[in-house]
TrEMBL record:
InterPro entries: Class_I_gatase-like (IPR029062), Peptidase_S51 (IPR005320). It holds the Pfam family Peptidase_S51. The gene is Aada. Its main location: cytoplasm. Hydrolyzes dipeptides containing N-terminal aspartate residues. This is dipeptidase E. It catalyses: Dipeptidase E catalyzes the hydrolysis of dipeptides Asp-|-Xaa. It does not act on peptides with N-terminal Glu, Asn or Gln, nor does it cleave isoaspartyl peptides. One of its GO terms (cellular component) is cytoplasm. Keywords: Cytoplasm, Dipeptidase, Hydrolase, Protease, Serine protease. The lineage of its organism: Eukaryota, Metazoa, Chordata, Craniata, Vertebrata.
């Protein structure tokens, strides 16, 4: 075993770059040399074969073998035998439903939290690493049995966090307003808005903001705060109910 190790990336593609290009150095230092093969979970997209080909090409270019869980006849056994897990982006509801359908929630939790294998998520894969998918941007195109997710961290993340465009005449809700509405419900945990190009590295009880863009932190009943790369977010791991801060 070992402490939990998570790399939670906001997005898999950054403008001007290829798949996982903006975070490939982070991936290499995160997985290190001990990991030889990565178990990929492509459930968030409909065409799992094509998704696995894209991910395999990228990880092989970084020196890692990649097995896609959808190619395994026993997904639970694949998780139990994995050295590292990467869950890719797509539709968060589709992804979470497939994790429940394949009885993988507890298995992944055990491997990551008890056995200490590295977990990497991007976009929807980052959403499901948190307490719940309540703060996803996706449409509920399918109906998972619960919105509760893997719970690898005791708070929520909003990937692809967007700031309001001051020049826009669009009168619809901003992302900030939607998160505020979530926090109008009682006992809702913090929400970390990760902008594109940002990621959160969790090692045991330490969490650090990495990447090229910042993040916005929302605590229930508090004014949102702005944070630059390098910020220590370890306090978010201590207690999911931070309303007393």
């Amino acid at each position: 075993g070992g402490p939990r190790r998570l790399l939670l990336v906001s997005n898999s593609t950054l403008h001007g770059g290829g798949y996982l290009g903006h975070c490939q150095q982070h991936i290499k230092s995160f997985l290190g040399e001990k990991v030889k093969r990565v178990l990929f979970v492509p459930y968030a997209l409909h065409d799992r074969d094509a998704y696995a080909r894209t991910a395999r090409k990228k990880f092989e270019s970084l020196g890692y073998g990649l097995d896609s869980i959808h190619e395994s006849c026993d997904p639970v056994e694949a998780v139990r035998n994995s050295e590292a897990i990467f869950i890719g982006g797509g539709n968060t509801f589709r992804l979470l439903k497939a994790l429940y359908d394949n009885s993988l929630i507890q298995e992944i939790r055990k491997r990551v939290l008890e056995d200490g294998i590295p977990y990497m998520g991007s976009s929807a894969g980052t959403n499901v690493a948190t307490i719940s998918i309540n703060t996803t941007n996706d449409m509920p195109i399918v109906y998972p049995p619960s919105l509760q997710a893997l719970g690898l961290v005791p708070f929520n993340i909003n990937p692809h966090y967007l700031d309001p465009d001051v020049k826009s005449t669009h009168m619809g809700e901003t992302r900030e307003e939607r998160i505020r509405q979530y926090h109008e419900e009682p006992n809702t945990p913090p929400v970390l808005g990760l902008r594109e190009g940002a990621m959160l590295l969790v090692e045991g009880d330490k969490a650090t903001l990495q990447g090229v863009t910042g993040a916005r932190l929302f605590l229930r009943g508090k004014t949102p705060t702005e944070h630059e790369p390098g910020t220590d977010f370890s306090f978010l791991l201590i207690d999911s109910n931070l309303q007393n801060l």
